[in-house]
Each structure stands twice: as C-alpha cells, then as structure tokens.
Amino acid sequence: MLTPPRSLKGSAPPDGEAGSGSPRRSRGDARDSALREPERPPARRRTDRGEAVRDTEDHDDLRSAAVHAEHVDDFDMRHLRYFLTVVRAGTVSAAAQELRISQPSLSQQIRRLERRIGAPLFIRSSRGVQLTSSGRAFLREVQGIPGQLRSAIAAAAPTPRTWPVGVCGGVPAEVLTEVQTGLAGQFTEQDAAQPGPRLPMSAVDAADQRDLLQYGEIAFGIVRLPMPTTGLVRAVVWDEPLGIVLHAGHPLAGRDRLDWDDLAGQRLLWYDDGCAPGYADSVPAQLAALGWRAELFPMDQDQHALFVHALQTTADLVGLRPRRAVQGAAQLRWQPLPTRRPPRERLAVTALAGSRPARALRRAAAQRDWPWSG
C-alpha cells in the first residue's frame, strides 16, 4: 500500500521521530532520496506589500497610457508641429515660410486639426493670429510633447544622429569652432567605434531658442547674456570687453584714442531685440551710465558683410565689438572705450536642463574650463 506524499508546507521531522500523519523514513528511503534531484525550495513569497502595490500601479499606468494612445491614433505629429510653429511665428504666412510649405496647405492642416479637436484654436485677422481660450488650453497641454518624445527617443537610442545648434546673430567664427570642438568629444555614452552625432549650426534668433529647445527642434543654443535661462543650463564660451569699431574711412578712424565727447554725435549700429534680448537693452544702459547716450541704429547682423557695409556707407555710424571679433578685417579699425570697466560681450551655450545634451555640455564645460551654470 502506497503512503501519500508528505506536504511540502511543513519541515520534515528528524529521523526516528514520528510526525503527525507522517511515516517513519527508512535508510532505503534516505538512499533513494539522495539519488533524486534535490527538491526546489518553494517560490519566495513577496512580503513587501508596497512593492506589489507599485507594480500594480505601474501596470495600471501602462494600461491607461495605451487607452489614451488608442484615442489619438489618427493624430499626426506634423499637426502638432504646425500648431506650435504658428503660435510662435504669430502669422500663418511666417509659419509657412519657416516650415517650407505653402500658406494654403498650412491653413488647411490647421483647420483639419481644429476639426479633430472640435474647437477653434485661433482667431484670424489681418494682423495675424491669436489663440482662443481653447487654443491656450491646448497649448498648455501639448507644448512639452515634442521635447518629451525627443528625450524618450534619445534615452532609448544610444547614438543620436543629429544634435542641431541654434546660433544667434553676429557670433565670431572662432566661437563656433570652440563650441564644435568642445561638444564633439563629449559623447562617451556611445560605443567608441560609432561616429558621434552631427552638430549642424544654423541662424536662430535668441528670442526663439528657448522655445525650440523645449520643443526639441534644437539640442543647443548659442546666445548673448544676459537673457532669461530658467529651465536651461548654460556654459559661457566667450567673455570679452567691448570696444568701438569704425570703418577705415570714418573721420575718427585715425585717432589714437577716443573720448566720450568724440562719441557724442555718433549713432551706434546695434542688434534687433529678437537677436539679443537682454543684451540689446543692458549694454546701451551701461553706456548711458558711463556718459554716452547713443542713438541706436538697429540692424540684422547675421552677416558680417552687412555689418561692414553699414559702417562704410553711413558717416556717423560706429559699431561695438570685442577686439578679437574684428581682428584681420582690413576695412575696420578698433578703439577701446574710454573707461577701465567697459561693457562685455558674453556668449553662452545653452541646453534643456536634465537632457542628454545638457550632460554633454556639462562634460565639455569641465574639460574646457567654460564657466557653468545650471
């Protein structure tokens, strides 16, 4: 007669002792047991109730995310980009030019988005577009999506292919070289055998760079300080005293030195507000405190040739640049400002705080002694 097997729940009593309802084990039983595979211990029971709750919550979050994703299967990320670009540009025509699509096509895509949402997003007028209350609510919820998606892709992909760099107007070539060199060697997270990402640089007004960083359209920005950098990290790559720049044919070009009286009748070739917000206001204020209330002559200064041409063709016009920025320009003359504490031009590389580009920027700053803030 076969004896039913003993339950695994309790521990076996020692040889020679009878357990309740358990037979005495013989030596033969012991030998047979030794030849068998050892019994696996029972699976460890999870005793951390908090861990189980967290697993359940994570599962619920994933299920909820999947349901939400199903509801927007027909939503095209292009529509989101189009919407954000129109908001930033202020007009459909300017947004279409930036997106490199026709204005009628962009208008049609925006209307399609409005039909999908079920509410008008913009008030259209001859002066441009303004957000409706529905548009403002939509913007609040979606403006971070492109950046979050780019961060998710970057976290999963060890080697980003391209990290675009936005450059404000008038940045010296040697600064671009310094930034390129500093950033290109910082991709230690990837396999050394793989080529690093490209760092294409393009002109982007400093006023637009913050939004583009948040939307994930650029990885780094190069801006003039001061400017608001909340939510960003930065490393200063250029810090030089400013001086007066004149064309070689200017009446003051032959002077050994200039004083404030010499500059009193001169206009200052200066930046548009969008090109250098903060800097465009702070430097003239410093000059006024030193004794020169210059009349400003704002101009787009993305191209050095336009800067030189303006100085050449306007008799009472002077510029303001660091000496290093105009060295080697045969048509230009540089003179120091008549003060021991002149205003300075500080250029910084920025990145979105907490992002992979921000980590690369911090490594570059440490290696190349760029003053860091973040």
Please provide a brief summary of the model.
With 374 residues, this protein is an alpha/beta fold.
Describe the structure in your own words:
The protein has 374 residues and is an alpha/beta fold. It folds into 3 domains: 66 residues, Winged helix-like DNA-binding domain superfamily/Winged helix DNA-binding domain (Arc Repressor Mutant, subunit A); 118 residues, Periplasmic binding protein-like II (D-Maltodextrin-Binding Protein, domain 2, 3-Layer(aba) Sandwich); 107 residues, Periplasmic binding protein-like II (D-Maltodextrin-Binding Protein, domain 2, 3-Layer(aba) Sandwich), CATH 3.40.190. Helix content is 41%, strand content 18%. It contains 14 helices and 12 strands. Strand 3, helix 8 and strand 4 form a beta-alpha-beta unit. The longest helix has 23 residues. The chain is globular, with a radius of gyration of 34 Å. The termini are far apart. The N terminus is likely disordered.
